[in-house]
Amino acid sequence: QVQLVESGGGLVQPGGSLRVSCAVSGFTFGVYYTSWFRQAPGKEREFVAAVRWSTGYSFYGDSVKGRFTISNDEHESTMELQMNSLKPEDTAIYYCAAANTWGSSDHYYRNSLNYNYWGQGTQVTVSS
Q1: d(CA 9, CA 30)
Q2: H or E segment at 107?
Q3: Pairing relation of β-strands 92-99 and 33-39?
Q4: What are the tens digits of pLDDT across the range 1-43?
Q5: Rounded alpha-carbon distances, angstroms, from residue 100 to 20, 47, 48, 53, 127
Q6: What is the mean pLDDT of residues 94-117?
Q7: List of E strands, the chain
Q8: How many CB atoms lie within 10 A of CB 127?
Q9: Angle, CA of 116, 118 and 124, to the nearest 5°
Q10: What's the pLDDT score for residue 88?
């Protein structure tokens, strides 16, 4: 079992920055990737970014590329998402997720169905 707990959400003005964190505990030895997804009211859950737990290799969703940065610290068992140049359309509940199954490509980890463990989510609101 893997437990995930998000923190750091809040209200920020457009153009501002915010960092959200995820504490990862439990049987992390079997985790291949940890990721951030988000879900806005009335919309489907959207892939934001993923990081390979053991190497730090990362990739991003098109809507956040160049503005968000994902990172992890395997020894501290944490993952962070630094969000810059925030837009109102970034408003959503942000979830961290962990996958302990192996996929052959980035595409596999863009699909929320391939993640076994989820946090409770943290609200990010971008508004003036």
Answers
A1: 28
A2: helix 106-109
A3: antiparallel
A4: 899 999 999 999 999 999 999 999 988 888 889 999 999 999 9
A5: 22, 17, 18, 10, 36
A6: 94
A7: 2-7, 10-12, 18-26, 33-39, 46-52, 58-60, 68-73, 78-83, 92-99, 117-118, 122-126
A8: 10
A9: 150
A10: 97
